[in-house]
């Protein structure tokens, strides 16, 4: 292998921007790292080049461990997005610069320079200054300079990002041609899917520092293994359905599938993916030559040159939950994206608002991993309360479960964990056991870095553990459920929300959880009766809660709404006294500038006063 990356990790302020990444790239391969901004792809390049030092892991180039070698000893060529040319040097001098500092004789430098100018299509422009060149020409100079010292690998960090579309297309073709001619191992970083599809022998998709999937472009597009890759690579229609004998089922419709779902038994949930080009439209149901999804209405038509893009709105389908395209909060429809050639458009013209029958020619199924819980225990009575509750919820939700033992040592810890395992019993989807001698926040952070979890169960003794709850919330994107006493039965949940984006997150995650538990939900919002226009505020909140009801109905969760007036803490306590609830759900505060989360006000009051039921703190996706 030309390049081997072995368990690379890099943290900034304790947060991993590259998280345990391992990858092998073959000799002469054109490999594309694809991901959104902040996914860690540029940091990976910097580590390979020696510009950034990894916190752990190895970099092996052509069989030599270069992890601790300086950049100039790695035989790497690097091309940046912003050219980085020396503006006071001619094109020729820019290309020769690396050779000059390596003491290459002048005749050899000139020969190599002229070869490269010819190679990148700039022959005869060697005496020009960078300011006399277009952006595309300057990037060609940067490429020639990176190749001048005949590197063994070429790294390109979004080199075409600052150029217009036509020049990008031309340079993509030039770059691929040069790479094939030289046979140089190349890693190209981009967030542009078209670039990745056109250039790559293989693509690696990154998100939040993790390398999620690696494979040839066509394979990743047609047969992704994860929800993120399915929705990130191109436009995706993604629904939650169920495995059926011989295929998958979305509501009443059964499809044959290309997905490999050997570990998924019939009846279990799966994600059903179909691309826009897999959708077939007809004037009548009988005119379709593929399984019928339903009748929809044309919501949007966009002209895209040789294609027409359409967005269709279908009514809800019993037993089907849409993932992509995402529907608006409170919307119970199913949206479908499709494309048609101009020949199809001419044969069957459509207009906005028109009804049309929708079929699907081909689907791919992905395993639906569902929820993942982390149960923390130190042997205390409070921890045992959350263990029992977490085990019950994990069985009902078919959640993958991690049992994390802390605060005890040696045989005492092992005996405790064995007892907890026996107490949890059977019925869990999976159970992994971890132990730590570190603090609980550090251990939870490491576990979240290894594989993110949705919900951490934490036993607390009241307000005195407020700081611990804050630290656990800060260690990842998970939510936290706290309890101090044993509690059985999960039939009624009170979700206290404020209208807004974070309130939507609270409702959607709680609804997803309650759907598994079979619990009913009350959506409560408190209006400050001292506000200038309490009635106007109440009307706005009522519209928001109505949207919440519709979103919960899509999930199959029974719910009602309630609006109270007055002090938030007092009114929530009244609601808890007047009605029987088994779970209180609150939205966690948004993180501060440096990621800190501080519990205050209503949350602190309720954590200290409500001790007879568990409290779920939901971290907003807006953070």
Write the layout of secondary structure elements.
Blueprint: E1 3-12, E2 15-25, E3 30-34, H1 41-49, E4 56-61, E5 64-65, E6 76-79, H2 91-101, H3 106-119, H4 135-147, E7 153-157, H5 165-182, E8 185-190, H6 193-199, E9 202-207, E10 210-215, H7 217-222, H8 227-232, E11 237-244, E12 247-250, E13 253-255, E14 269-274, E15 279-282, E16 292-304, E17 307-314, E18 321-324, E19 334-341, H9 342-347, E20 355-360, E21 364-367, E22 372-377, H10 381-397, E23 400-405, H11 410-424, E24 430-435, H12 440-450, E25 455-459, H13 466-474, E26 479-483, E27 492-496, H14 501-517, E28 520-527, H15 534-554, E29 559-565, H16 568-578, E30 583-587, H17 602-609, E31 615-618
Parallel strand pairs: 3-8, 3-9, 6-7, 7-8, 22-23, 22-25, 23-24, 25-26, 27-28, 27-30, 28-29, 30-31
Antiparallel strand pairs: 1-2, 1-4, 4-5, 9-10, 11-12, 11-14, 11-18, 12-13, 14-21, 15-20, 16-17, 16-20, 17-19, 26-31
Helix pairs in contact: 2-3, 2-4, 3-4
Keywords:
alpha/beta, 6-stranded mixed beta sheet
Verbal overview:
It is a single chain. The chain has 623 residues and is of the alpha/beta class. It contains 17 helices and 31 strands. The chain has a ten-stranded mixed sheet, sandwiched between helices. The protein has a six-stranded mixed sheet with strand order 6-7-8-3-9-10, sandwiched between helices. Strands 11, 12, 13, 14, 18 and 21 form a six-stranded antiparallel sheet that branches. α2 runs parallel beside α4 (135-147) and α3 (106-119) crosses α4. The longest helix has 21 residues, at 534-554. It is globular and about 90 Å long. The two termini are 40 Å apart.
């Amino acid at each position: 292998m030309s390049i081997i990356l072995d368990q690379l990790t890099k943290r900034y302020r304790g947060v991993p921007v590259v998280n345990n990444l391992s990858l092998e790239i073959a000799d002469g391969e054109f490999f594309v790292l694809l991901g959104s901004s902040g996914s860690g792809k540029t940091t990976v390049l910097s580590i390979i080049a020696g510009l950034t030092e990894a916190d752990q892991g190895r970099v092996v180039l052509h069989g030599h461990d270069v992890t601790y070698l300086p950049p100039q000893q790695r035989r790497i060529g690097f091309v940046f997005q912003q050219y980085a040319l020396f503006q006071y040097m001619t094109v020729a001098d820019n290309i020769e610069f690396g050779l000059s500092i390596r003491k290459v004789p002048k005749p050899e430098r000139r020969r190599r320079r002229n070869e490269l100018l010819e190679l990148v299509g700039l022959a005869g422009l060697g005496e020009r200054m960078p300011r006399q060149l277009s952006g595309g020409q300057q990037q060609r100079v940067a490429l020639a300079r990176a190749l001048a010292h005949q590197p063994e690998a070429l790294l390109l960090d979004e080199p075409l990002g600052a150029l217009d579309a036509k020049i990008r297309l031309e340079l993509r073709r030039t770059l691929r041609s040069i790479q094939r001619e030289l046979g140089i191992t190349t890693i190209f970083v981009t967030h542009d899917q078209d670039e990745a599809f056109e250039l790559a022998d293989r693509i690696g998709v990154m998100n939040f520092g993790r390398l999620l999937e690696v494979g040839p472009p066509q394979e990743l597009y047609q047969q992704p293994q994860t929800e993120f890759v399915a929705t990130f690579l191109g436009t995706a229609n993604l629904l939650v359905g169920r495995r059926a004998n011989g295929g998958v089922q979305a509501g009443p419709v059964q499809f044959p599938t290309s997905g490999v779902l050997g570990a998924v038994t019939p009846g279990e949930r799966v994600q059903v993916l179909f691309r826009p080009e897999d959708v077939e439209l007809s004037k009548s149901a009988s005119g379709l030559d593929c399984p019928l999804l339903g009748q929809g209405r044309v919501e949007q038509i966009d002209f895209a040159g040789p294609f027409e893009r359409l967005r269709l709105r279908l009514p809800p389908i019993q037993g089907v939950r849409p993932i992509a395209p995402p529907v608006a909060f409170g919307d119970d429809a199913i949206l479908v994206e499709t494309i048609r050639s101009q020949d199809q458009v001419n044969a069957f013209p459509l207009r906005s608002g028109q009804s049309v029958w929708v079929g699907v020619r081909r689907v791919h199924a992905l395993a639906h991993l569902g929820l993942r819980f982390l149960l923390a225990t130190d042997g205390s009575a409070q921890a045992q309360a959350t263990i029992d509750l977490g085990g019950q919820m994990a069985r009902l939700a078919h959640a993958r479960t991690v049992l994390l033992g802390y605060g005890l040592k040696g045989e005492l810890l092992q005996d405790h964990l064995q007892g907890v395992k026996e107490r949890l019993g059977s019925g869990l989807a999976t159970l992994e056991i971890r132990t730590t001698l570190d603090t609980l926040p550090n251990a939870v952070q490491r576990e979240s870095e290894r594989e993110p979890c949705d919900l951490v169960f934490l036993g607390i003794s009241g307000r005195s553990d407020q700081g611990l709850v804050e630290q656990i919330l800060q260690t990842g994107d998970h939510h936290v459920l706290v309890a101090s006493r044993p509690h059985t039965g999960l039939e009624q949940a009170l979700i206290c929300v404020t209208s807004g984006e974070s309130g939507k997150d609270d409702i959607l995650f709680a609804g997803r959880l309650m759907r598994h538990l079979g619990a009913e939900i009350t959506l409560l919002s408190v209006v400050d009766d001292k506000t200038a226009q309490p009635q106007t505020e109440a009307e706005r909140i009522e519209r928001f809660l109505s949207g919440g009801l519709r979103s919960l109905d899509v999930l199959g969760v029974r719910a009602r709404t309630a609006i109270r007036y007055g002090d938030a803490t007092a009114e929530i306590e009244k609601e808890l006294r007047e009605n029987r609830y088994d779970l209180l759900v609150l939205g966690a505060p948004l993180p501060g500038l440096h990621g800190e989360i501080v519990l205050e006000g209503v949350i602190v009051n309720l954590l200290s006063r409500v001790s007879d039921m568990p409290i779920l703190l939901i971290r907003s996706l807006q953070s």
